[in-house]
Design brief:
Blueprint: H1 2-14, H2 17-23, H3 40-49, E1 50-51, E2 54-55, H4 58-70, H5 79-93, E3 97-101, E4 107-111, H6 113-122, H7 124-127, H8 148-151, E5 162-165, E6 168-171, E7 176-178, E8 183-192, E9 195-205, E10 212-223, E11 227-229, E12 249-253, H9 274-279, E13 283-297, E14 306-314, H10 319-322, E15 329-334, H11 339-356, E16 358-362, E17 367-379, H12 382-388, H13 425-429, H14 446-456, H15 465-478, H16 485-495, H17 500-512, H18 519-531, H19 557-577, H20 583-594, H21 607-612, H22 619-632, H23 639-655, H24 663-684, H25 693-696, H26 700-707, H27 716-730, H28 737-755, E18 760-762, E19 787-788, E20 794-796, H29 800-804, H30 811-816, H31 837-842, E21 846-849, E22 851-853, E23 859-861, E24 865-868, E25 882-891, H32 895-898, E26 904-916, E27 921-934, E28 939-943, E29 945-947, H33 949-952, E30 955-964, E31 967-977, E32 984-986, H34 1009-1043, H35 1047-1055
Parallel strand pairs: 10-12, 13-17
Antiparallel strand pairs: 1-2, 3-4, 5-6, 7-8, 7-11, 8-9, 9-10, 13-14, 14-15, 16-17, 18-20, 19-20, 21-25, 22-23, 24-25, 24-28, 25-26, 26-27, 27-32, 29-32, 30-31
Helix pairs in contact: 1-4, 14-34, 15-16, 17-18, 19-22, 19-23, 22-23, 23-24, 24-34
Length: 1061
């Protein structure tokens, strides 16, 4: 890095000043073809400087401009001209960066949420995929908008409040007339089968026809084509002349047996839904977002420079778009402001949007729309989610943010473990306790251990938002009494509630009177400090409309499963159960090196890395371990340990399943799998239940039903975005990191939006004005192309030049995520019908391919096993579902050939047999002389198969040469030699395409978890006693040795193998 800086300094100094100025004019000629940039060079430089993962410092920019100059490129702008151009473009059509002074005294910046959402609506690459209504997809759930959470809401902010039908706008909570003469009131709009459906309450006329009574107990579904007259046209159509006035609502009946009416409070009957008047005839959409928070380092070095960052993505996007880097948006970061203080600024923007909405240009309907953003859930790792939900954290006695389950009492904790400490019964049985005791505590009795573990493996009462707020108010009230710190601490411990935003003010109050001695002085000081506090001292999370931070912080599967159970178990295997050096250690390394990973979508495993560096692995490594563990751990670990691994490998694909065909059946299977996993873990050792993540898994069932498949609220995409944030931090001057990083992301958003084909918003405050100060005179190439977006603002399309840069896939489209969709080949057998007899007789017709990409993105090679569906092509073909790829064929000069796509695949049929041990996975075999030719569209996915090494006792008898620096060496390493290679099992632990393994996994009969807990607890107590006896014996032997004087030295010297004269 220092060498590069020195080189840059030398190069910059070598540039002659006169030549420097001559080649870098401040302003170049403007070319309308490249609007809003002045010319092609300015456009391409701007793009280059704001690619997400290709960040340029000012010094690097200077050397780049020098490179252009010495190659005689004309009209090179100066560095300052580039910066001025960026500032100008950002002011005209970019995302604004807003500066805040937080309630805790820190300054930070937040990019405008309204501007970002407005860009998404005007972006044709995003808008076509957005969903604004929940969908009824039957039992099938693949997206958030198909889950129950959105439809269970009764909230005008979080539900899209209107539907446009036949030119009329039908709003929620407004009376309307149906075509069959009934009068109803919609309270929810949703989609089913591509059409809109309304859930409505029936209305009946009150006595004397003076108004309407809303029958909230009578709910009916009405399709959109049955609506006739809306609220605004009620008085202008003869169809409603004989009906009571639409603006008169007498009240509502919640039950059919009720006699007394409940007052109507949802709207003002005179004006209807509040969003009707705010929209002024425009469409109104609900815009759900996933809000994510995490901390990352702003340094490349190991020195930690903590930056709290907020990101979001649109929850209305389909899953395959949701976590793409292109669709992840930066809001704020700071290395000084706490996350809840930063959240306060974001909530301010949300509250403004809830009050008035956000005006945006809808590029699909070509009209202004009003959008209402709302937060679906708060995502992050467990410490972040605990802080966001005002929870005391995983180390607390009440360690669960979702329920009130109780763990250890503080005085009874035998050992506090971190996530980096792997423990099992092995350590105790050998007399070596692997935990790090802070102090000697009371040991649990057998009954206490059993009762604690039984509580641990069951859900407690759900935490209630109202109760948590009340607890926080009680804590704040207690802080206004002198000397109440111990009571406050006890309150936090006994409720599991802790508001880090409130903690700042509690500290102010508790220290305000410490320097005073008399009671009167202390009271005056405390009252003075209390009067200086802001009006609201509680976390801004309670101001997020409709959000319950206890139930809306879903279990994050990356940190709970891969960086939780898999990490714990793997480190225990390596550190406790298999000791280095040993033959078992070598066997594990060799098995990992030799395991077949085809179909898993991962690289060949490096056994030495996975074993030798088990303490430094990442989520990607543990993802690989989880899918192959049953095939490499047999006969190397205890049976109870192996059983837990097998059950965990069966559980993980269910958790990662992306499409759920039947939500009820899936959750039932998942519940049984979780139950069996906890049962096997308890039977192994209850020591694992010191770790709260084993309990958190119980709540994932409710979260999947509420939010959809768990991968939707996984954070891998956000975690990888930390590298982008770090890059912006590294290439800033570190003087104002929150502002500089926010501005860098705002510039990137502008480039992304414009190159995606979005129109520019010409802000009034940035437009030059003509003689009439009331009429802006925009400086655009063609004023006839201006788009009057009404309240969405004046807009203008970008020139054709910038769009030509991304017309075809290239380096820039790859960096920005603008690559086109995968081409779909011509369907088989149509792709082969034009082969003439002359072609077959006179020239090569086909060529064999080594590999191809399937339509789901899997890489398929010859020899791979696949799932295929042949029934749609030929009902007479026997479909055995599983096949092995024999050949991948291309018809030379066919349309598919021109696109590097295959025309057909030759498959050999396979057969799925019974479940076999010890893997508890189905055996498979090939059917002889059974082949079929299919098209790429028939292949569902690749699958992973493994040899039954455990049954055949495969040994490490073969050796292979080691590759170093891409060259073969004379060094060899052992590999597994398979006996009877055709005896295979289907790896149902595969995480990719888990939906296709439904029905192929082992059916689990739930075990009695109470018996398993008792068995594990007894074994734990026995191991503890054995460890105590071993320690006592060792202590006694040491004391005897010390009593012998010179014998201690002699014994130690002999042990080292030294000669004593």
């Amino acid at each position: 890095m220092y060498a590069v800086s020195a080189l840059l300094d030398a190069v910059v100094e070598s540039i002659e000043p006169n030549e420097h100025r001559r080649k870098r004019p401040r302003l170049a000629a403007r070319d309308p073809h490249w609007y809003p940039w002045p010319n092609k060079l300015a456009c391409t430089i701007d793009i280059l400087l704001h690619l997400p993962r290709s960040v340029f410092s000012k010094r690097q920019l200077d050397i780049f401009l020098w490179l252009l100059m010495v190659n005689d490129v004309d009209d090179i702008p100066s560095k300052y001209a580039i910066q001025n151009q960026e500032k100008k473009l950002q002011g005209i059509c970019g995302v604004r960066t807003l500066e805040y002074e937080g309630a805790l005294g820190h300054r930070y910046c937040v990019n405008s949420l309204g501007d970002l959402l407005a860009q998404e609506m005007a972006n044709p690459r995003v808008r076509e995929h957005l969903r604004f209504y929940p969908e009824d997809n039957g039992k099938t759930v693949a997206e958030f908008y198909q889950a129950s959470g959105w439809r269970e809401l009764d909230d005008p902010i979080r539900l899209t409040p209107m539907a446009r039908i036949g030119g009329q706008d039908f709003y929620l909570y407004e009376p309307c007339l149906l075509k069959d003469g009934r009068v109803c009131m919609p309270f929810e709009w949703f989609k089913r089968g591509g059409g809109l459906i309304a859930n409505v309450w029936t209305l009946r006329a009150g006595a004397g026809g003076s108004g309407w009574i809303v029958e909230e107990y009578n709910r009916v579904e009405v399709p959109e084509d049955q609506f006739l007259v809306s609220f605004t046209l009620w008085n202008s159509t003869p169809s409603t002349g004989h009906l009571p006035p639409v603006w008169s609502i007498l009240g509502s009946l919640l039950e059919a047996t009720n006699v007394q009416l409940s007052p109507w409070t949802r709207t003002n009957p005179q004006h209807g839904n509040q969003w009707r008047s705010k929209a002024g005839g425009s469409r109104v959409y609900s815009f759900p977002i996933w809000l994510y928070c995490d901390d990352t380092s702003g340094n490349v070095s190991k020195k930690w420079n903590k930056h709290n960052s907020f990101l979001f993505t649109a929850a209305g996007l389909p899953r395959h778009h949701l976590h793409q880097e292109y669709n992840i948006h930066f809001l704020s970061t700071s290395n000084i402001a706490p996350l809840l203080e930063m959240l306060d600024g974001i909530v301010d923007q949300l509250e403004e949007a809830w009050a008035e909405g956000i005006w945006a240009w809808d590029c699909i309907h070509k009209e202004p729309v009003l959008i209402i953003p709302w937060v679906v859930a708060l995502l992050g790792d467990n410490p972040m989610q605990s802080e966001l939900s005002c929870h005391i954290g995983l180390a607390g006695k009440f360690f669960c943010r979702n329920c009130d389950v109780k763990g250890f009492d503080v005085g009874d904790i035998p050992a506090l473990q971190s996530d980096d400490e792997a423990t099992s019964e092995v350590g105790l049985q050998t007399g070596h306790d692997t935990t790090k005791h802070r102090s000697r505590k009371k040991l649990e009795t057998l009954d206490e251990m059993v009762q604690r573990v039984k509580r641990f493996v069951r859900k407690g009462q759900p935490r209630q938002k109202v109760q948590t707020i009340q607890n926080l108010h009680d804590i704040f009230a207690s802080s206004q009494i002198i000397g109440n710190q111990r009571r406050i601490k006890t309150k936090k411990t006994e409720t599991g509630v802790k508001d880090n935003f409130l903690e700042h003010f509690l500290t102010q109050l508790s220290t305000a009177y410490l320097k005073f001695k008399t009671k009167h002085q202390q009271t005056d000081a405390l009252e003075s400090a209390t009067s200086n506090l802001p009006d609201d001292v509680f976390s801004p999370v309670w101001h997020i409309w409709g959000l319950n931070p206890h139930s809306d912080t879903p279990v994050e599967i990356l940190h709970v499963v891969l960086l939780g159970f898999v990490k714990y178990f793997w480190r225990d295997v390596v550190q406790n159960q298999i000791k280095k050096p040993s033959s078992q250690w070598e066997a594990l390394v060799t098995r990992l090196n030799s395991v077949d990973v085809s179909g898993l979508g991962i690289s060949k495993l490096a056994g030495e890395t996975l074993v030798n560096y088990a303490g430094s692995l990442t989520g990607r490594d543990f993802r690989a371990v989880a899918q192959v563990a049953p095939f490499v751990l047999y006969n190397l670990v205890s049976q109870h340990c192996y059983d837990a691994w097998v059950v965990l490998s069966n559980l993980i694909p269910l958790v990662w399943q992306t499409v759920i065909p039947n939500i009820d059946e899936h959750l039932k299977q998942l519940e049984i799998a979780i139950h069996e996993f906890l049962t096997c873990t308890a039977r192994w050792t209850p020591r694992w239940f010191n770790k709260p993540k084993f309990h958190l898994l119980l709540h994932i069932l409710a979260h999947i039903r509420r939010f959809g498949p768990a991968v939707l609220f996984a954070t891998e995409g956000f975690e990888s975005y930390n590298a982008v944030i770090r890059g912006k931090s590294v290439h800033s001057n570190r003087m104002a990191p929150s502002r500089d990083i926010a501005l860098a992301f705002a510039q990137g958003n502008r480039v992304r939006h414009l190159l995606s084909g979005g129109s520019m918003l010409l802000r009034p405050e940035t437009l030059p004005h003509g003689p009439d100060a009331q009429k802006p005179a925009p400086d655009v190439p063609d004023k006839n192309s201006l788009i009057d977006g009404g309240k969405a603002g004046l807009r203008y399309p970008i020139g054709p030049g910038p769009l030509s840069l991304i017309a075809r896939p290239n380096t820039i489209t790859s960096y920005l995520g603008l690559d086109p969709k995968t081409n779909i080949p011509d369907l088989f057998p149509d792709s082969l019908r034009n082969i003439t007899h002359h072609e077959r007789a006179t020239q090569p017709t086909f060529r064999k391919c080594v590999s191809t990409n399937l339509l789901n993105g899997d890489v398929c090679r010859t020899g791979f096993w696949v799932f295929a569906n042949l029934d749609a092509l030929n009902s007479t073909v026997t479909s055995s579902k599983i096949y092995q790829v024999v050949e991948i064929l291309q018809h030379i000069n066919s349309p598919n050939y021109q696109q590097s796509l295959p025309d057909a695949l030759l498959l050999q049929s396979g057969k799925i047999l019974e479940i076999v041990g010890p893997y508890q996975m189905p055996q498979i075999s090939l059917l002889e002389n059974t082949y079929t030719l299919v098209g790429l569209e028939s292949i569902l996915c690749t699958v992973n198969v493994q040899h039954r090494c455990a049954s055949h006792r495969c040994e490490m008898t073969d050796a292979t040469f080691v590759q170093q620096e891409r060259h073969a060496t004379s060094i060899t390493k052992a590999t597994v030699s398979h006996s009877n290679p055709s005896d295979l099992v289907l790896n149902t632990a595969q995480m990719r395409d888990a939906i296709h393994f439904t029905g192929l996994r082992r059916n689990i009969s739930p075990s009695n978890i109470d018996d398993a807990i008792m068995e594990g607890a007894i074994k734990e107590i026995d191991a503890r006693k054995s460890a105590a006896r071993a320690t006592s014996i060792n202590t006694g032997a040491a004391a005897t040795t010390r009593g012998r004087g010179t014998g201690r030295t002699t014994g130690r010297t002999k042990a080292r193998g030294r000669v004593v004269n």
